[in-house]
Design brief:
- The chain is built from eight helices and five strands; from the N terminus they run H-H-E-E-H-E-H-E-E-H-H-H-H.
- It has a five-stranded mixed sheet.
- Strand 1 and strand 2 form a beta hairpin.
Amino acid sequence: MEKLSILRAKAVRTLKKNHYESLYWGQGQLVCGLDEAGRGPLAGPLVTAAVIVPLGTKYYLLKDSKCMTPEERERAFKWISDNAFYAVGIVPVPVIDIINIWYATLLGMRRAVMQLMSTYSARPAAFLVDAMPLSMKGTSYADIPVHAFVYGERLSCSVAAASIVAKVIRDRIMEKTHPLFPLYNFDKHKGYATPTHRGYIQIYNRSLAHRITYMPSLNIANQKEGDDWKQEELC
């Protein structure tokens, strides 16, 4: 954990806001930002997004989705829908349980890229990724450089846009999941390991929407709010 904190601090010191965008935009080239939502929750799918924003984008609401209100995210999502190109990759619960969340994230990102490229004619000059070591090996995009760096949502408007798309779409999926499993109130906590959600699992056991591999680490009796790594990270 200490090593990760040092790496994040170094990233903030060495990279300026939109560093990679500026490099490529200055040459008239577009880049593709990638991020995910749903690595930590106890229930629901993982959603990744790939977004290409226009050259020189400076929209003020393109920031870390975790630092935004739901209303701000919806407003930013509307702007992205009207002005940018995006696609998502969704990895369902059974696949997460089989391959684990790390590989599920990489799989989702590749799916998002392939989906975006199937509808967008131009090739991006680079992929910008929030920390994950994405590889496009084995695809026709293997020659495109990948720049992976921590605090991606705060250092790149493209990654920030991807984080917003992924978060908004995943939240909508969890809201639609709620009527199927109303006892768990997925429309409220979106599957994150809040004290209330952990309490529901203790009472009703898990549902088909829950990740089996996350259950063994769910020591409900001994956890306090804020001490669970699976809770949604806040600013």
